[in-house]
Amino acid sequence: MFLRVVGIFFVGLAGLGVVLPVLPTTPFLLVAAGCFAKSSPHLHQKLLNNKTFGPMIFHWQESRSIPKRAKIVSLITMVLGVSYSCWLLDSHYLRIFVVILVAFPFIFVARLPLAKGEN
């Protein structure tokens, strides 16, 4: 029951991430899928059957890989977000902090393997 509630909470956060650019959508759905895999096969299957996010969740669960399009969109979005933030910030220290803060997730996503058939 606890994992089901946590999964629903993360689906809600993912829903907010669709409309709020500061919240990521896919990581929240991956956490929700992990919770549902252990607590509710029905809800887990509903996530996998989703046309938009189902393939990404499937690839992640099967091979810890992501589709090429998702990787490109993620990396470009990170670069644009950092660039815009640095443009808005007056302090050089804050700009450096933002770049460092996003550098690790950027490297993580850049190093993820592509899903089979996506090379």
Structure description:
By secondary structure, this protein is mainly alpha-helical. It folds into two domains: 62 residues, no CATH class; 44 residues. It contains six helices and no strands. The longest helix has 21 residues.
Which oligomeric form is depicted? single chain
Instruction: Kindly state the number of beta strands.
Output: 0
**Terminal-residue CA separation:** 39 Å
Q: Class by helix and strand content? A: mainly alpha
Determine the number of helices (DSSP H or I, runs of at least 4 residues).
6
Percentage of β-strand residues: under 5%
Largest sheet: none
Structural Rg: 16 Å
Uncertain runs are none
Please state the average pLDDT score: 87
- Overall shape: it is globular
Order of helices and strands: HHHHHH
The overall number of domains is 2
Task: Give the helix proportion (percent range).
Answer: over 70%
Give a topology summary.
Elements: H1 2-19, H2 26-39, H3 41-49, H4 54-63, H5 68-88, H6 92-111
Features:
2 domains; 119 residues; mainly alpha; globular
Describe the structure concisely for a colleague.
Helix content is 77%, strand content 0%.
